[in-house]
Each structure stands twice: as C-alpha cells, then as structure tokens.
C-alpha cells in the first residue's frame, strides 16, 4: 500500500496551498492508495475530509489522521493517534518533548521526528534540547527518513539514525503546493484503513519501505540565504505562540492525567473483582 505520510492542506495549515480534495485527486492520479494528513498543530484538514468528502467521493482512497506538532524545545514531531482517541491538547502548540511523548504513548499513539536533520529550529537534531538529551531517540516509534523538501545529506543522516536506533522509516513529501505532491512515498506491506492498523504495523516492526525524489521548489531554493530570516521569524513565532497557550495546555494536561488515573483505578477494581 502506497501512501504519502507528510501532507499539508490549506484547510489545516496556514502555509498550505492545496485543498484536501485536490490533494487526494492528485495522489490518486499518481497511483497512491492513501495519505496521512499532517497539518501544523491542527486537524482541520482531516475534519474537512471527514465532514464533506468521506463516503461520497474517493471511496477507495484511505485518509489517515495525523498532525505535525510544534514542540517548544525540539522541533516538529509527526504524531498518529488511534482513531477513537481525540486529544485537544495536540492542537495547542508548545509542549516540551518529554510531555508530548508521555501523552502520546499513554493514549496508545506513536510519534517520530519530522525532517530530523533539517532546518534549524524546526528539526530535532539542531536543537539544544537534543544536544543535551541524545538518547531521546530511543523514545520514538519511527523517524521520517525521506522528506522531499530536505537536502539529500539530511535524509541520509536520518536513515542512518533510524537504522542505529531500530526505528521504522517514513517517507513524506511535506508538500504545501500542488507540484510537490507525490514526490515521496511510504509503502506498507499490507493494506490498512485506519490509524490503529498503522500503529500496529509500526509497533510490530513490519517491513516498511520508503523513497521519492527531492523537490526543487522550496522557499530555500528560491530565495537562498534570505531563507534564514524566515527561520528566525518562525523561531520567534513558535516561542510566542507556545507560551500563549500555556494556560490551556496545563488545563488539558491536568484533565488527561486525571482521566488516566481514573481509568487505571477502574481497571484495578475490575481485575480484583
């Protein structure tokens, strides 16, 4: 089964230029069987598909729900939760990486760094947090080992790191524009139809293949060194936006922790009955 595992839509990402329906249409034309929607800190692209497209058109095409989460200290993370789990906190950017890992794993999800050797501030390996906590790679379930919008060297380093830590590799276009769609793929050994099935494949270390071609139309390609100005602007924006949601995140964190404790307590009572 062939999928694009890193997709941005205009419904869910501020920098997305393609509607999710046009995205699906293009991938179908290119012979893909599905996609993982990974908008920035938002499920709105997936919601658009679920509300207005699912069951009406593109009936043989599988759309999976994911998110590209902006941590406060470790760059971008791709997160996939079981289909029956809804966590509002994942749409509130700015969690520190250890808390994100704890929440995702507690509720049965998987996560891995997007473009881990990519742009400064956006990518794990370039962060101060990683330099002080390199063993954090052992906590991930997969790693994006091919990203069409990153240099070949960055992808090669990601492949080596994934192999070293025994992580599954994903390939994703990271496309925000039409001409980038379909430049990367992930091939699963069997057909799936929902997120929990993908999670199960990753956890049982099923053979997953990936590949693609590099996209030459990125902002970095077009404006050269001026791209650094955008990177610094992103860093500032992410910090401000992350701190602005602290109160909401804390409230959600307390709620999730309480729910977990209650669930564990109820399970213990049933086990003793």
Please provide a written account of the structure.
With 273 residues, the chain is of the alpha/beta class. It has one domain: TIM Barrel (Alpha-Beta Barrel). Helix content is 39%, strand content 17%. It is built from 9 helices and 9 strands. The chain has helices spanning 20-29, 44-52, 97-106, 128-132, 152-165, 195-203, 219-223, 227-244, 246-272, and strands at 2-7, 34-37, 62-70, 76-80, 110-113, 142-147, 168-172, 184-187, 209-212. A 7-stranded mixed β-sheet has the order 5-4-3-2-1-8-9, sandwiched between helices. Strands 6-7 form a two-stranded parallel ribbon. The protein is globular and about 45 Å long. The termini are far apart.
Task: List descriptors.
TIM Barrel; seven-stranded mixed beta sheet; two-stranded parallel sheet; 9 helices; 5'-3' DNA exonuclease activity; PHP_dom; Pol/His_phosphatase_N
